[in-house]
Amino acid sequence: MRARTPLALLAVTAALFAGAAVTAPAATAADTCHTQSTIGLTCHYHYGNQWAERGSVGNHVREIQALINGTTDYRQVGGRLAVDGRFGPATETAVRWFQRNHMAAGSVDGVVGPNTWRALRGYRV
């Protein structure tokens, strides 16, 4: 197991000495989103730019959720989105936040079309 900070290493060491089971933390979107030369940022759920709006379901929605979680500061203002592939109210709120804070004025519609995909694929905190 690779410790990310000295404090984490200390906590793991203390747990081991106490006889506790230690498991590696689950990977987060931030750990799995990378730049791919042909499309920009990807979290490897979906490589295209399929239209998404409230009610949409699928891997393209998972990609949107993971990109917002892993590459923006939304988690500090709205929390982490569930990467469940369902475009519900929480995902729409996060998309509107992204559009309002990281795109041109007038872009806020809560729909992920080509312009929002380009912004999501190119934005990084």
TrEMBL record:
Residues 58-120 form the Peptidoglycan binding-like domain. The keyword Signal applies. It holds the Pfam family PG_binding_1. Keywords: Signal. It comes from the Bacteria. InterPro entries: Peptidoglycan-bd-like (IPR002477), PGBD-like_sf (IPR036365), PGBDSf (IPR036366). SUPFAM superfamilies: PGBD-like. Residues 1-20 form the signal peptide. This is Peptidoglycan-binding protein.
